[in-house]
Amino acid sequence: FCSFFSKQGHNGHHERIDFLSNKEKVSKRKTGLLVGVLLAFLVLAAVAAFLIWLFVCEFINSFKHKATLSAQRGPQSQVFSGHLKLAGVSYDQNLEDTESKEFKDLASTIQEIVSLTLEIKKPSFISLFLFSCIFEGVIAYYWSQFDIPPEDLDVLPEFSEERVLEVLESGLKAQRFSSIHITEVTTSLTDPRMARSPTARDCFFRLEATENGQEFSSPGYPHGYPPKSRCQWQIRASEDMAISVSFPFFHIEDDCSDDFVFIYDSLSPDESQAITNKCGQRPPSNPLEVVSSGNIILINLITDTDVQRPGFQAVYKAIPSSMVKTCGGVLIATEGVITSPLYPSFYPPAVDCKWSIKVPAGKKVRLKFTMFRMKEPGVDIRECHKDYVEVMGTKYCGEMSSLSLTSSTNAVDLTFHSDESYTDKGFSVQYSAFDPTNPCPDMFACASGICIGKEMACDGWNDCGDMSDEMDCKCEKDQFACKNGLCKPKLWECDRVNDCGDGSDEKGCGCEENEWSCGNGVCLPQDVRCDNKKDCEDGSDEASCINSPGICSAFSFKCNNNDCVNKVNAECDRIKDCSDNSDEEYCSKPYKLSRIGGGQNAELGEWPWQVSLHFMTYGHVCGASILSERWLLSASHCFVTSNPANHVPSNWQTYSGMQNQYKYDGVQRLPLKRIISHPDYNQMTFDYDIALLELSEPLEFTNTIQPICLPSSSHVFPAGMACWVTGWGAQREGGQKAQLLQKASVKIINDSVCNVVTEGQVTSRMLCSGFLAGGVDACQGDSGGPLVCFEESGKWFQAGIVSWGEGCARRNKPGVYSRVTKLRQWIKDETGI
Ligand code: ARG
């Protein structure tokens, strides 16, 4: 169990400590004086005097049966944790056993050194140790509690992390009488709930990782963890090994201040070596998977709520440290993929990698990141002073949905740095050589260097991501030339949507500049806007006003108690707008995922509201979405056909939690009890193409089966918004149904454009979504499935139901969907949802 913590080069152990010790060199004497004054002050101020490092084993004995330090807390106590690096101590495996003589002797020696350093007289400072070894000695992990009596609370500010560290550091460095040298100290203010006695028994586990994966799970899993849990798993591995811990199942309360899992690259809950802190629910497509940098890792589960969640299941194993530390290299292929170490698992803390890409002379290198997540608390992404990727002198960190770079020569270096604390999923980047004289053969070259289809340039959509495909366009005859140089379809002029971005397509549209134009084209003086009076017939002058109490229009959100809220998309935005809170009820839990591309396989659990409807012996024929345990939403045209059998509930089976049509793990198959198709559904026009399906038994929600949020009737899905359609329908016109669930990103299309391209066939119960350029669309077999949009509130809302289209993915023939907002009231009347 003795391992070698190799810390190489400039990524040396504790950056923050180095900084503090530099400071110490400059003002050593001053610090010494200050320390003296501080200590004298503390000792005087506290009548009960201060800080003694109790002999650790006495402490352990006296608290043997008490699980957490926090149980001993007075009204004001602070817990610090960290480690001390001990040089001159040779490692002995017995040090890992808190009952051994070796452990007790060493703990007592350090105790003495530290109490001497601090000249502490009275016991209000207690400390606990654990040891592990490194190649040049031993690391002692500690956590300590300072109790500050109420009469001394004015000294509380002195107990800052920096101050305690300064006192310890300068004092310990000055110690010259002992054979033990403390060469490094870290201290972090710690949540007392995580400071557990190393001899605690309840929910405290010491595990030994081997190369074979072993499992553990949270208490009560999968039925639910108890409230007020303080659990700790301490995992060690043998030398030259690192530890990987993955969580195939993870469902903790959503509010991280109540319940959370905190993982450390240390044996003490030391913030400066935190790996990550997570709560919430994770779908199987995005599991949590972390690795340590050395041969130890600490996992804490803290729960405070009574809300029971299933908890987690974890698999831990030892992996060779070389897998964690070896990365980078020279790449001479003309294309390839580079990922952060151990991707898609979280990258390890404290690693540095450098990849040097070199392509043939005369070529350049294009880098396209398909994943970039390096988020750390307290980091300014303009500076990236912690973990980062560096390319051509620029550091990148945080989270980016699209990042593309091109080199200026035929060689480019990509460096990756992770510091001691907090890690994340990392990055995956595709690199390829290109000819700078013809960077995108037969395609359009974006300024960022990426290539897009030629037809996407000057089509009114920002496909490059940097707008470069929409600049300097010669507007076609059927296009409107915006003031800012963009071209937009002429149809978008005067449609009350600012398509140009500079408003130029909406200027001079009948109403004067200082006038408000109502939905029906009537112009009223601008001051009718948000004056708490409904002036336009359709109430549009009071829509999206922060405050228009009592005004109820088609644009208002109606609370259950019939109050109206005049705010755009008030529901599920985590702000209580209705006095009865009805705008924040029935909001399904969001999955925080990054979604990329269009028309590709979906992951299991990625669209947990998607349902497959099987009819008699035909297998999958339509899609549906989950509204609640008992109700599904689909399209009428799946049930109202020339064949009456389609309307018989017992002829249908519903499959929830499915991804692969041939795999049934985690899938819930339930029969239908009732089919309610809209009474106004018109088989000729597909108007009111909506149906509600009542299940004969309730669904059980899991992490692959979850309901979708319904938008209120006032919810706005603006033209241009990118939404997602999913289903097992045909993958091209006339093609075969898909075996794996497919997802495609489609854009909401402006109503007047929709009406023109469908030759006037759309009614107000329909909306268009897709691309006028064609290429991405729903198709046969997707019907009844959901069109969902992700809102800033962090929730997915269902905007449409797949209904019809002319062919599939044809140019100028976008998909037509039933407009859920228009049919919202009917859903409520029928189901109460
Ligand atoms: N009516 C089709 C079905 O039954 C869905 C058509 C959707 N077509 C489209 N191009 N978006 O599956």
TrEMBL record:
GO BP: fertilization; proteolysis
Keywords: Disulfide bond, Glycoprotein, Hydrolase, Membrane, Protease, Repeat, Serine protease, Signal, Signal-anchor, Transmembrane, Transmembrane helix
Signal peptide: none
Annotated ranges, domain CUB: 203-319, 327-434
Disulphide bonds in the chain: C446-C464, C458-C473, C475-C487, C482-C500, C494-C509, C511-C523, C518-C536, C530-C545, C552-C564, C572-C587
Subcellular location: Membrane
PANTHER family, per the entry: ACROSIN-RELATED (PTHR24252), SUPPRESSOR OF TUMORIGENICITY 14 PROTEIN HOMOLOG-RELATED (PTHR24252:SF17)
Name of the featured protein: ST14 transmembrane serine protease matriptase
Source organism (scientific name): Cynoglossus semilaevis (Tongue sole)
